[in-house]
Amino acid sequence: MFIYAHTWLYTTMFLNKLLGAFSITSILTMIFITQLIYVKEGQENIFHEFENYAIPIISKYNGELMLRLRPDAGSVVEAAIDHPYEVHIIRFASMLDFDAFLTDSERSKYLDLKEKSIKESFLIKGEAL
User: Fold this and answer.
1) What is the pTM of this model?
2) In what order do the strands lie in the sheet with 86-92?
3) 65 burial level (CB within 10 Å; 0-12, 13-18, 19+)
4) pLDDT over 60 at 21, yes or no
5) How far apart are CA 106 and CA 96, in angstroms?
6) Residue 10 has pLDDT above 80, yes or no
7) What is the 3-state secondary structure (H, E, C) of 45-113?
8) What is the distance, to the nearest Å, from the Cα of residue 76 to the centroid of all Cα atoms in its chain?
């Protein structure tokens, strides 16, 4: 048991030194992504087409789409920004999984649909407390 704990300690210290500003625990901690998506007027169908390709790929990288909303103006209580077309809450097992999702070759084939349809988006990354 002592050898295992000792090896784990040195492995963690080595990885932390290697990764610099990133710690091994921050890379391996489950992350939550909240995304506010603003779609260009008249481009909703193109956006839906992109989502039809992109969303199923999330699970390939230890991710889960936890919530997908299309809020209307009537559901907003108070705002300093426009209400988004969609809001996504997604979780990934780690930052490494999220990064792998972003660079997925299958998803990359459809990024032109995203560019054509999305006016602006905000991505908020967090961790469970």
Assistant:
1) 0.77
2) 63-69, 86-92, 31-39, 118-126
3) middle
4) no
5) 18
6) no
7) HHHHHHHHHHHHHHHHHCEEEEEEECCCHHHCCCCCCCCCCEEEEEEECCHHHHHHHHCCHHHHCCHHH
8) 24
The structure tokens listed for 107 are 């998803």
Quick one: pLDDT band at residue 14, thresholds 50, 70, 90? low
What is the CA angle 95-98-103, rounded to 5? 125
The pair of structure tokens assigned to 87 is 């809001």
Q: What is the mean pLDDT of residues 112-119?
A: 97
Whole-angstrom distance, CA of residue 42 vs CA of residue 29 = 39
